[in-house]
Amino acid sequence: MAVQVADVDMPEMELDPTTWKEQRQALLKLINSGDWIARTPLGYVITRYDDATAMLRDDRWYSAIGLIADMQGYDHPDFRRRSGRNILAMEGEEHHRIRRLVGPAFTPKSAERLRPFMAEVINELLDPVCARGSAEFVSEVCEPYPIPIICEMLGAPREDWKLFGRLATDIFRIFNGNLHRDGPVIVAAQDEMETYMTALIAERRTSPRDDLLTDLIAAEEEGDRLTTEEMLSLANSLLLAGTDTTRNQLACAVALFCQHPDQLRRIADDPSLAPGAVEEVMRYLGAIRGTARFASEPIIYRDIEFPPDTFIFPSLVGANYDDEKFAEPTDFDITRRSGTPHMTFGSGIHYCLGAFLARAELQESFKAIATRMPDLRFDGEVKWKPLSDGIWGPTSLPIRFTPGH
Fold first, then answer.
1. What class has domain 57-296+331-400?
2. Hey, what long-range contacts does 136-139 have (CB within 8 A, 24 or more apart)?
3. Would you give per-residue pLDDT tens digits along the chain (405 residues)?
């Protein structure tokens, strides 16, 4: 007979330790003690790889991203309307339908066709930095890097890169935890994005190109097609999920390479190591630290019953450091061959739709950085976002290296 989760004897865990190393240490302590679940003031942290995977693959656990407005008591109708149709928050058959239709547009092939452009963008950003041998890497490289690639993917022209950058910055306020203050700015940016994308979609319907919007317009399964509203939602989700994640993951990577310059030199000597380096960086220091789900109905797992609306927090950090899956998990090794994929892209129906794109962006940037920034090192204090941020990484990353490459 199942036991109610509230009655289970389990350790307590803080959700927001001071540093990422303290967070990792707390999770390792639980894992080493054989604990797969811990209680927090808001719900339950899931610490181990197999349990996090199993629960994320159970469609009865719903994404909590759609509850942001409810949790803050924010009731703007346009905000709620857009949140409800966001693929990141959709569930059930509606979510499966959208994923079936758009999946063919997010393939390795679609990412590969953008690789030359990715290399062009990262090298253009590195040119002034490499001439002087120093940079504040977050503001000079990480922040501007993903926007041109998203624009190219959607088919938006270069003159609109700054527009997309501004809209992305305003829309990302959704993660600041203060919708009553930021909500009007977010909605205004969403309105502007919707107006722009409506015109671009209409243009692609009459003048197809080799870009994502044309692929989405052509997407069809048994006569079913995406509506304009659904394409607008996908474009908004892509801007939201495909920009800040890459910015932060690249900054995490460069901070790691400053601490492990031998690993970066290996990529410079052998660029074929870049794909493996991306996977190890995302395992060791992922920009997505965890995710949140709530029970849509009573769920029994491991003879424990989770009542409806119970929150769980599958720890992607805990999963990525589970020593049953990764030998010597606290070692950073870009040649690691574990046979187990890291969990930073998630698992189940909400597995990152843009994983192939993100991998390609990071691979191209790693190769350029390794080649053009020898003797990479810190040039001051690295400042980090609070660990409570949904997408995490350095806010300031001063670096120095040998110039002229």
1. mainly alpha
2. 136/396, 136/397, 136/398, 137/251, 137/254, 137/397, 137/398, 137/399, 138/247, 138/251, 138/393, 138/394, 138/395, 138/396, 138/397, 139/396
3. 799 999 999 999 876 667 888 888 989 999 989 999 999 999 999 999 999 999 999 999 999 887 777 777 787 777 777 666 677 777 888 888 888 877 777 888 888 989 999 999 999 999 999 999 999 999 999 999 999 998 888 888 889 888 888 888 888 787 777 888 888 888 898 899 889 989 988 898 888 888 888 888 887 655 778 888 888 888 777 777 778 899 999 999 999 999 999 999 999 999 999 999 999 999 999 999 999 999 999 999 999 999 999 999 999 999 999 999 999 999 999 999 888 999 999 999 888 888 999 999 999 999 999 999 999 999 999 999 988 777 899 999 999 999 978
Whole-model pTM: value is: 0.92
In terms of Cα–Cα distance, which of 388, 331, 326 is closest to 31?
A: 326
Strand pairing class (398-400; 377-378): antiparallel
**Tokens for 100?**
């079936």
CA angle, corner 198, sides to 192 and 204, nearest 5?
Answer: 135
Task: Retrieve residue 171's tokens.
Answer: 């829309």
Residue positions counted in the chain: 405
